[in-house]
Amino acid sequence: MVTASLVKELREKTGAGMLDCKKALEATGANMDQAIDWLREKGISKAEKKAGRIAAEGIADVLVNGDSAVIVEVNSETDFVAKNEEFKTLVKAILNTIMENDPQTVEDVLSLPYEGKTIGDLIIEKTSKIGEKLSLRRFQKVTKKDGEVFGSYIHMGGKIAVLTVLANTNEEVAKDVAMHAAAMRPSYVSIEDVPEDVIEREKTVLTEQVINEGKPKEMAEKIVQGKLHKFYSDVCLKEQIFIKAENKETVSKYVQNNGGTIVSMIRFEVGEGMEKKEENFAEEVMSQVNSVN
After folding, report:
1. What is the pLDDT of residues 279-288, one digit of tens each?
2. Which of 31, 38, 202, 246 is exposed most, by the fewest CB atoms within 10 A?
3. Is residue 172 part of a domain?
4. All residues at 6 or more sequence positions from 14 whose CB lies less than 8 Å from its CB, including other chains
Protein backbone atom coordinates (compact mmCIF):
# COMPACT_ATOMS: atom_id res chain seq x y z
CA MET A 1 0.00 0.00 0.00
CA VAL A 2 1.37 3.44 -0.96
CA THR A 3 1.33 5.68 2.09
CA ALA A 4 2.22 9.34 2.53
CA SER A 5 5.23 8.39 4.66
CA LEU A 6 6.56 6.11 1.88
CA VAL A 7 6.17 8.89 -0.68
CA LYS A 8 8.00 11.30 1.65
CA GLU A 9 10.83 8.80 2.22
CA LEU A 10 11.26 8.17 -1.50
CA ARG A 11 11.29 11.87 -2.23
CA GLU A 12 13.99 12.46 0.38
CA LYS A 13 16.10 9.66 -1.06
CA THR A 14 15.80 10.68 -4.71
CA GLY A 15 14.93 14.36 -4.87
CA ALA A 16 12.06 13.52 -7.22
CA GLY A 17 8.67 15.21 -7.05
CA MET A 18 5.86 13.85 -4.89
CA LEU A 19 3.69 12.90 -7.85
CA ASP A 20 6.57 10.98 -9.48
CA CYS A 21 7.36 9.23 -6.19
CA LYS A 22 3.73 8.17 -5.86
CA LYS A 23 3.73 6.81 -9.43
CA ALA A 24 6.97 4.93 -8.81
CA LEU A 25 5.65 3.28 -5.67
CA GLU A 26 2.38 2.36 -7.36
CA ALA A 27 4.26 0.86 -10.32
CA THR A 28 6.48 -1.27 -8.06
CA GLY A 29 3.99 -2.43 -5.44
CA ALA A 30 5.38 0.01 -2.84
CA ASN A 31 8.85 -1.59 -3.00
CA MET A 32 11.31 1.18 -2.05
CA ASP A 33 14.38 -0.19 -3.86
CA GLN A 34 12.44 -0.97 -7.02
CA ALA A 35 10.80 2.46 -6.88
CA ILE A 36 14.25 4.11 -6.71
CA ASP A 37 15.33 2.09 -9.75
CA TRP A 38 12.10 3.02 -11.54
CA LEU A 39 12.83 6.72 -11.01
CA ARG A 40 16.44 6.29 -12.09
CA GLU A 41 15.33 4.53 -15.26
CA LYS A 42 13.03 7.44 -16.01
CA GLY A 43 15.84 9.91 -15.29
CA ILE A 44 13.74 11.55 -12.60
CA SER A 45 16.06 11.07 -9.62
CA LYS A 46 18.92 13.03 -11.19
CA ALA A 47 17.92 16.23 -9.41
CA GLU A 48 19.41 14.99 -6.14
CA LYS A 49 22.86 14.70 -7.69
CA LYS A 50 22.72 18.35 -8.72
CA ALA A 51 21.69 19.67 -5.30
CA GLY A 52 25.23 20.64 -4.29
CA ARG A 53 26.10 22.51 -7.47
CA ILE A 54 26.36 26.27 -7.70
CA ALA A 55 23.47 27.90 -9.56
CA ALA A 56 24.51 31.53 -9.99
CA GLU A 57 23.19 32.27 -13.50
CA GLY A 58 19.51 32.56 -14.39
CA ILE A 59 16.81 35.17 -14.84
CA ALA A 60 15.41 38.05 -12.82
CA ASP A 61 11.93 39.06 -13.95
CA VAL A 62 8.91 41.18 -13.01
CA LEU A 63 5.18 40.62 -13.42
CA VAL A 64 2.69 43.46 -12.91
CA ASN A 65 -1.04 42.80 -12.62
CA GLY A 66 -3.30 45.66 -11.50
CA ASP A 67 -2.33 46.78 -8.00
CA SER A 68 0.10 43.91 -7.46
CA ALA A 69 3.58 43.17 -8.78
CA VAL A 70 6.03 40.32 -8.28
CA ILE A 71 9.80 40.33 -8.79
CA VAL A 72 11.80 37.07 -8.73
CA GLU A 73 15.26 35.64 -9.27
CA VAL A 74 15.37 32.04 -10.51
CA ASN A 75 18.81 30.48 -10.92
CA SER A 76 20.46 27.98 -13.23
CA GLU A 77 24.06 26.81 -13.40
CA THR A 78 24.86 28.29 -16.81
CA ASP A 79 23.80 31.24 -18.91
CA PHE A 80 23.24 28.73 -21.73
CA VAL A 81 20.29 27.23 -19.86
CA ALA A 82 19.05 30.65 -18.68
CA LYS A 83 18.32 31.40 -22.36
CA ASN A 84 16.41 28.12 -22.79
CA GLU A 85 12.69 28.60 -23.52
CA GLU A 86 11.74 25.85 -21.07
CA PHE A 87 13.61 27.64 -18.30
CA LYS A 88 11.92 30.93 -19.22
CA THR A 89 8.54 29.15 -19.04
CA LEU A 90 9.42 27.91 -15.55
CA VAL A 91 10.16 31.48 -14.44
CA LYS A 92 6.80 32.66 -15.81
CA ALA A 93 5.01 29.80 -13.99
CA ILE A 94 6.64 30.81 -10.71
CA LEU A 95 5.77 34.49 -11.25
CA ASN A 96 2.11 33.72 -12.02
CA THR A 97 1.74 31.33 -9.09
CA ILE A 98 3.15 33.89 -6.64
CA MET A 99 0.84 36.52 -8.11
CA GLU A 100 -2.19 34.30 -7.49
CA ASN A 101 -1.20 33.64 -3.87
CA ASP A 102 0.31 35.44 -0.91
CA PRO A 103 3.49 33.57 0.08
CA GLN A 104 5.87 35.12 2.62
CA THR A 105 8.96 32.96 2.16
CA VAL A 106 10.67 30.93 -0.57
CA GLU A 107 9.57 27.79 1.31
CA ASP A 108 5.97 29.02 1.05
CA VAL A 109 6.36 29.41 -2.72
CA LEU A 110 7.83 25.91 -3.12
CA SER A 111 4.77 24.41 -1.43
CA LEU A 112 2.23 26.30 -3.58
CA PRO A 113 0.10 24.04 -5.83
CA TYR A 114 0.74 24.07 -9.57
CA GLU A 115 -1.07 21.83 -12.07
CA GLY A 116 -1.44 18.82 -9.77
CA LYS A 117 1.94 19.23 -8.08
CA THR A 118 3.81 21.96 -6.22
CA ILE A 119 6.21 24.64 -7.45
CA GLY A 120 8.95 22.71 -5.63
CA ASP A 121 8.03 19.56 -7.59
CA LEU A 122 8.02 21.57 -10.82
CA ILE A 123 11.55 22.89 -10.17
CA ILE A 124 12.81 19.37 -9.40
CA GLU A 125 11.13 18.05 -12.54
CA LYS A 126 12.72 20.77 -14.69
CA THR A 127 16.09 20.19 -13.01
CA SER A 128 15.95 16.56 -14.12
CA LYS A 129 14.76 17.39 -17.63
CA ILE A 130 17.09 20.32 -18.35
CA GLY A 131 20.08 18.70 -16.65
CA GLU A 132 21.17 21.52 -14.35
CA LYS A 133 20.44 22.58 -10.80
CA LEU A 134 17.60 25.12 -10.87
CA SER A 135 16.40 27.08 -7.86
CA LEU A 136 14.19 29.95 -6.75
CA ARG A 137 16.55 32.26 -4.89
CA ARG A 138 14.33 35.17 -3.86
CA PHE A 139 11.15 37.08 -4.59
CA GLN A 140 9.03 39.97 -3.38
CA LYS A 141 5.38 40.68 -3.93
CA VAL A 142 4.33 44.32 -3.73
CA THR A 143 0.89 45.91 -3.53
CA LYS A 144 0.49 49.56 -4.45
CA LYS A 145 -2.03 52.02 -3.07
CA ASP A 146 -4.35 54.42 -4.89
CA GLY A 147 -2.31 57.24 -6.39
CA GLU A 148 0.77 55.05 -6.77
CA VAL A 149 2.28 53.56 -9.93
CA PHE A 150 4.67 50.72 -10.70
CA GLY A 151 7.79 51.10 -12.78
CA SER A 152 9.64 48.02 -13.99
CA TYR A 153 12.73 47.48 -16.08
CA ILE A 154 14.48 44.31 -17.26
CA HIS A 155 18.08 44.67 -18.38
CA MET A 156 20.09 42.33 -20.64
CA GLY A 157 17.30 39.79 -21.02
CA GLY A 158 16.89 39.29 -17.29
CA LYS A 159 20.37 39.82 -15.82
CA ILE A 160 18.93 42.68 -13.77
CA ALA A 161 15.30 43.37 -12.81
CA VAL A 162 14.05 46.47 -11.00
CA LEU A 163 10.62 47.23 -9.59
CA THR A 164 9.80 50.73 -8.32
CA VAL A 165 6.74 52.25 -6.70
CA LEU A 166 6.20 56.01 -7.04
CA ALA A 167 3.35 58.18 -5.77
CA ASN A 168 1.56 61.05 -7.53
CA THR A 169 3.28 60.70 -10.89
CA ASN A 170 3.09 58.49 -13.97
CA GLU A 171 4.42 55.11 -15.09
CA GLU A 172 6.94 56.68 -17.46
CA VAL A 173 8.69 58.46 -14.58
CA ALA A 174 8.54 55.28 -12.49
CA LYS A 175 10.17 53.33 -15.33
CA ASP A 176 12.86 56.00 -15.70
CA VAL A 177 13.72 55.54 -12.03
CA ALA A 178 13.79 51.76 -12.48
CA MET A 179 16.17 52.12 -15.45
CA HIS A 180 18.41 54.40 -13.39
CA ALA A 181 18.48 51.90 -10.52
CA ALA A 182 19.42 49.10 -12.92
CA ALA A 183 22.41 51.10 -14.14
CA MET A 184 23.62 52.75 -10.93
CA ARG A 185 23.08 49.91 -8.41
CA PRO A 186 21.75 51.84 -5.38
CA SER A 187 21.64 49.79 -2.18
CA TYR A 188 19.01 51.93 -0.44
CA VAL A 189 16.21 54.30 -1.39
CA SER A 190 17.05 57.12 1.03
CA ILE A 191 19.62 58.10 3.67
CA GLU A 192 17.12 57.10 6.36
CA ASP A 193 17.22 53.53 5.06
CA VAL A 194 20.97 53.10 5.60
CA PRO A 195 21.49 50.97 8.75
CA GLU A 196 23.28 52.70 11.63
CA ASP A 197 26.02 50.06 11.76
CA VAL A 198 26.79 50.66 8.07
CA ILE A 199 27.08 54.41 8.69
CA GLU A 200 29.33 53.92 11.75
CA ARG A 201 31.59 51.54 9.84
CA GLU A 202 31.89 54.02 6.98
CA LYS A 203 32.65 56.85 9.42
CA THR A 204 35.42 54.77 11.03
CA VAL A 205 37.02 53.99 7.67
CA LEU A 206 36.76 57.60 6.47
CA THR A 207 38.19 58.97 9.74
CA GLU A 208 41.21 56.67 9.46
CA GLN A 209 41.69 57.76 5.84
CA VAL A 210 41.64 61.44 6.80
CA ILE A 211 44.09 60.95 9.69
CA ASN A 212 46.42 58.86 7.50
CA GLU A 213 46.38 61.69 4.97
CA GLY A 214 47.92 63.87 7.69
CA LYS A 215 44.90 66.12 8.27
CA PRO A 216 44.58 67.65 11.78
CA LYS A 217 42.16 65.81 14.08
CA GLU A 218 40.15 68.98 14.64
CA MET A 219 39.42 69.09 10.91
CA ALA A 220 38.76 65.36 10.56
CA GLU A 221 35.09 65.43 11.60
CA LYS A 222 34.18 68.14 9.09
CA ILE A 223 36.07 66.37 6.29
CA VAL A 224 34.43 63.05 7.18
CA GLN A 225 30.98 64.62 6.98
CA GLY A 226 31.75 65.78 3.45
CA LYS A 227 33.00 62.33 2.45
CA LEU A 228 29.93 60.76 4.05
CA HIS A 229 27.73 62.89 1.81
CA LYS A 230 29.61 61.43 -1.18
CA PHE A 231 28.98 57.93 0.24
CA TYR A 232 25.23 58.63 0.42
CA SER A 233 25.22 59.92 -3.16
CA ASP A 234 26.75 56.60 -4.21
CA VAL A 235 24.48 54.16 -2.36
CA CYS A 236 21.12 55.96 -1.97
CA LEU A 237 18.75 56.14 -4.94
CA LYS A 238 17.32 59.54 -4.02
CA GLU A 239 20.78 61.09 -3.64
CA GLN A 240 22.26 59.78 -6.90
CA ILE A 241 22.60 62.07 -9.93
CA PHE A 242 19.87 61.01 -12.35
CA ILE A 243 21.46 59.35 -15.40
CA LYS A 244 19.21 61.19 -17.87
CA ALA A 245 19.61 64.60 -16.20
CA GLU A 246 21.33 67.38 -18.12
CA ASN A 247 21.64 69.68 -15.10
CA LYS A 248 23.08 67.28 -12.47
CA GLU A 249 19.76 66.97 -10.64
CA THR A 250 19.28 64.05 -8.26
CA VAL A 251 16.81 61.24 -8.81
CA SER A 252 14.72 62.65 -5.96
CA LYS A 253 14.64 66.09 -7.63
CA TYR A 254 13.73 64.57 -11.01
CA VAL A 255 10.77 62.77 -9.44
CA GLN A 256 9.72 65.89 -7.49
CA ASN A 257 9.82 67.94 -10.69
CA ASN A 258 7.30 65.46 -12.09
CA GLY A 259 5.02 65.85 -9.07
CA GLY A 260 5.95 62.57 -7.41
CA THR A 261 7.80 60.86 -4.59
CA ILE A 262 9.67 57.55 -4.45
CA VAL A 263 7.93 54.97 -2.27
CA SER A 264 10.12 51.90 -2.80
CA MET A 265 12.68 50.22 -5.05
CA ILE A 266 13.66 46.55 -5.39
CA ARG A 267 16.64 45.59 -7.52
CA PHE A 268 17.61 41.97 -8.25
CA GLU A 269 20.86 41.26 -10.09
CA VAL A 270 21.31 37.61 -11.04
CA GLY A 271 24.00 35.87 -9.01
CA GLU A 272 24.62 38.95 -6.87
CA GLY A 273 26.80 37.94 -3.91
CA MET A 274 27.00 34.32 -5.05
CA GLU A 275 30.10 32.37 -6.02
CA LYS A 276 30.11 31.64 -9.75
CA LYS A 277 31.87 28.64 -11.20
CA GLU A 278 34.45 29.27 -13.91
CA GLU A 279 33.67 27.44 -17.13
CA ASN A 280 34.58 28.36 -20.67
CA PHE A 281 31.96 28.48 -23.39
CA ALA A 282 33.19 25.41 -25.25
CA GLU A 283 33.02 23.29 -22.09
CA GLU A 284 29.57 24.73 -21.34
CA VAL A 285 28.27 23.75 -24.79
CA MET A 286 29.76 20.25 -24.53
CA SER A 287 28.23 19.75 -21.11
CA GLN A 288 24.83 20.58 -22.60
CA VAL A 289 25.36 18.23 -25.56
CA ASN A 290 26.41 15.42 -23.24
CA SER A 291 23.41 15.97 -20.98
CA VAL A 292 21.09 15.53 -23.97
CA ASN A 293 22.83 12.41 -25.35
Report:
1. 444 554 445 4
2. 246
3. no
4. 21, 36, 39, 40, 44, 45, 47, 48
